[in-house]
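pls ignore typos typing on phone
protoporphyrin IX containing FE + seq
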Amino acid sequence: MSGHGNNERVFARLTKSERIQHVILFTSTTLLIITGFMLMGEDWVVRMLGPTGKSIFYWRGIVHRIAAVAVSVVCFYHLFYVLFKTTGKSWIRDMLPRLKDGVDAYQNVMYMMGLRKERPKLDRFTYLEKLEYFSVYFGMFIVISTGTMMWTQSYWPKFYLDVADALHVGEATLAALAIIVGHIFAVHYNPHVYPMNRAFIDGNISETLMKEEHSLWYERLIAEEVSKPANTPEGGHGNA
Ligand code: HEM
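k done
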């Protein structure tokens, strides 16, 4: 247990490794979106950038490829992490979809429409977080495979390249929209966390937010703590 500046109790939400993976994913995806969509309005972007436009465009392709390598490395590392590391195994075990997620989604919609008095008790990862996580993984699989084909275009027949290009742009658009609309709302504008959820910086989540957004997980951690023998060192699973 430890406190934030206001001495509120906090719980561990993201390990150091998870935060590093998140920073690399976030930085490289932002660069990929900027440098990828620049290509779709090349003439307009070059004109807007003025005399330096052509050389900026030369670097655009290089930055897109460097960021592509970074995002691919982090995705493969994450796969290794969830398969072989202890904290990674616990992450994926808690992230796998369950029947309860469907029930939670239904009950939460009912609650938001005023047809149910209480919010459902949500676990370590909510049904929306699971949806976002698996959508990112699926999306990354599409952009990495199609991007690799476009990068090695001399080896592929034109028809396959056209399909890869269409899939790459389609998935890139979905990813950009999901990040701008969904993720930014969830971690910035959501009234429970505004102006920002700091877990990606310090790895912690406040007790208030735990009770509001992950009450089932919170109750489990408190129960584990209470059942621990008195001389056990403090700081069991999930406690910062
Ligand atoms: C979130 C991730 C990504 C986004 C948002 C994105 C976006 C884009 C967009 C919008 C284009 C323009 C396509 C066109 O105008 O036809 C593009 C082109 C391209 N992308 Fe990506 N991309 C991403 C990831 C990747 C990855 C992982 C790779 C490689 C493994 C890659 C390699 C390429 C290549 C080689 C091109 C061809 C044009 C060029 O940049 O020279 N992209 N990307």
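The first helix runs from residue 16 to 40. Residues 29, 32-33, 36-37, 39-40, 61, 64, 68, 71-72, 143-144, 147-148, 150-151, 165, 168-169, 172, 175-176 surround protoporphyrin IX containing FE (CB under 6 Å). more later
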